[in-house]
């Protein structure tokens, strides 16, 4: 019985983990775009690392937004 309750608790905690991951991605992306704003102040290694990271984060954000809207549209068609 205790083991099953732990599994149920794991699924309930999964939502919290998703929120924490979303918060971390948001913080990293906001820092990345903040640093990309002022290219003159960046060190050489930052210029090499932050530009591809910014593109990857933008692609991740757009992909997740597309997935969210696709899931919402699928839910509406099932109702």
Which secondary structure elements does this structure contain, and how are they paired or packed?
Elements: H1 2-37, H2 44-78
Helix pairs in contact: 1-2
Describe this structure in a few short sentences.
This protein has 79 residues and is mostly helical.
Task: Describe the protein in words.
By secondary structure, this protein is mainly alpha-helical. It has one domain. Helices cover 90% and strands 0% of the residues. Helix 1 (2-37) packs across helix 2 (44-78). The chain crosses the membrane at residues 55-74. Keywords: Membrane, Transmembrane, Transmembrane helix.
Q: Helix coverage percent of residues?
A: over 70%
**Uncertain segments:** none
| Broad shape | elongated
Largest sheet: none
Instruction: Report how far the terminal alpha carbons are from each other.
Output: 35 Å
Structural class: mainly alpha
Q: What's the helix count? A: 2
* Mean pLDDT over the residues: 69
Transmembrane segments: 55-74
Keywords: Membrane, Transmembrane, Transmembrane helix
Features:
mainly alpha; 79 residues; elongated; 2 helices; 90% helix; single chain
């Amino acid at each position: 019985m205790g083991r099953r309750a732990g599994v149920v608790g794991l699924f309930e905690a999964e939502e919290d983990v998703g929120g924490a991951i979303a918060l971390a991605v948001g913080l990293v992306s906001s820092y990345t775009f903040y640093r990309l704003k002022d290219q003159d102040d960046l060190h050489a290694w930052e210029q090499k690392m932050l530009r591809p990271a910014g593109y990857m984060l933008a692609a991740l954000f757009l992909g997740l937004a597309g997935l969210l809207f696709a899931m919402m549209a699928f839910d509406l068609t099932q109702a």
